[in-house]
Amino acid sequence: MNQQKIISLLPAATEIICALGLEGNLVGRSHECDFPESVKNLPVCSDAKFLSGASSEEINQQVMEILTNALSIYQIDQEMIEHLKPDVVITQAQCDVCAVSLKDVETALINLLANETQIISLQPNTLADIFGEISTVASILDAEEQGKQLIEDLEERVNIVRHKLKFFPDKPKVVMIEWLSPMMVAGNWIPELVEIAGGKSVLAENGKHSPFVTWEQIYDENPEIIVVAPCGFSISRTLQEIDLLLNLPGWIDLDAVKNNRVYIADGNAYFNRSGPRIVDSIEILAEIITPKYFSFGYEGAAWIKFEM
Question: Which of 1.20.120.790, 3.40.50.1980, 3.30.470.10, 3.30.420.40 would CATH assign to domain 169-305?
């Protein structure tokens, strides 16, 4: 029986641990870890320095000001972590804005944790990276068989989508909006997810960080499908700021808008989390992009069609 005590400072890592059947080993979590529901009972070991309820533009300004001063946008509860005495702490080195980073952990805990405490840092950029890091985490936590089975199950679901769309002739242009102000489109693994689901991702490259773009760039691409899934935002949270898009010059001229193919998805629960639910994200995109082929049951909860 694995007795390692684990603190996860990354929502995706928390989901990986639980999917491996090791939820009982978790002794602490980040303020953002919220799935599965049961992990909310764990002690919270971090917090954000910015106001999460602010507007997209205000959040961006706060974050940029904090980072300009060479500070982390997250704070770690050192006393709590010391009290919990973890054997393993999991964090990430992918993005200083998305979650507590390796730098945060090393700075905060350098003189705190015992030498035998292991820090695992995740840094995926592609779908293959995500699966590879699930395998790595499983190996480190002595759960190799569970990891192998989990990856097999996830890959089987991906292959079902791939196979069904093998001869799908049309790949509509898809813009995935990851932040509303300033405008950012989703990079990293998202372009690949779009391609698997039957679309053609534009303005972002697979495996590369999400780029800031101008409205003119999106307008010139004239996408056939727009999916709005801001990082860390639920559907209801995104709806609070949807006017930022509706008021853009030429919005109603886009093919996606004229053909009623604008969608809002839960960017907090899916897409931005590099854990097992990344495959849910592929299935969500398949429902959106190729609805004649797929109906997994996500509509209404994980995504909605935005009605003008």
Answer: 3.40.50.1980
Tokens of 161: 């989508």
How many Å apart are CA 191 and CA 198, to the nearest integer? 11
Q: What is the pLDDT of residue 49?
A: 65
Helix (H/G/I), strand (E/B), else coil: 201: strand
| CATH class of domain segment(s) 6-123 | alpha beta
Residue 27: closest CA among 45, 15, 47, 46: 45
Low-confidence residues in the chain, pLDDT < 50:
1, 70-71, 97, 99
- Nearest CA to 175 out of 55, 307, 288, 98 is that of 288
Three-class DSSP category at 225: strand
Q: What is the DSSP string of 169-187?
A: ----EEEEEEEETTEEE--
**How many Å apart are CA 117 and CA 155, to the nearest integer?**
32
Strands 88-92 and 183-185, how do they pair? unpaired
What pLDDT was estimated at residue 71?
Answer: 46
Q: Where are the domains of the chain?
A: 6-123, 169-305
C-beta separation of 17 from 25 below 8 A: yes
**Residue 211 DSSP code:** P
Residues 125-159 pLDDT 10s: 999 999 999 999 999 999 999 999 999 999 999 99
Secondary structure element (H or E) that encloses residue 127, with its range? helix 127-140
